[in-house]
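Quick start: read one record
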Amino acid sequence: MKNYVKLIALFMLVPAAGTFAQNADTSAAPVAYNSADIKWVDAPPLPKGAKMAVLAGNPAESGPFTMRLKFPAGFDIKPHRHTKGEQVTVIQGTLFCGTGEQFSREKATLALTPGGFAALPGPVAHFAYTKEEVIIQVNGVGPFDITYVNEADDPRKNGNKQ
């Protein structure tokens, strides 16, 4: 009976181990940061004032990535979409979020506080705003892109570049 239980446990663990091995990036060196070591740069696809720091991977290339975004107080992120989904975790502050193609502070009914999490499928239009400085972490699979619902909101096209 003991061998039977061990055999069942082995059959349950082998597929899980294979999944972890497929997702592990063994070609890259380990990465670790303390908050003070993070280097912030302008975030060109976002309006002036947004900063970003890529922690792991490369959002412009295929494969997993982790980046942080920092938004100043009173910052608006107009409705936009991504080709691929993103997972967002709030590190600092409160991020007010909503879904849909029209920006509306009243419709931003989700207030994500530190530790809060949201997973957004790629095609879902969403927007956000801040009342205080906010830092979020974004995890996803690249290449990462952002397409604004209203082309006039795209700072890369309307002169509101970083």
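Helices lie at 2-23, 155-158.
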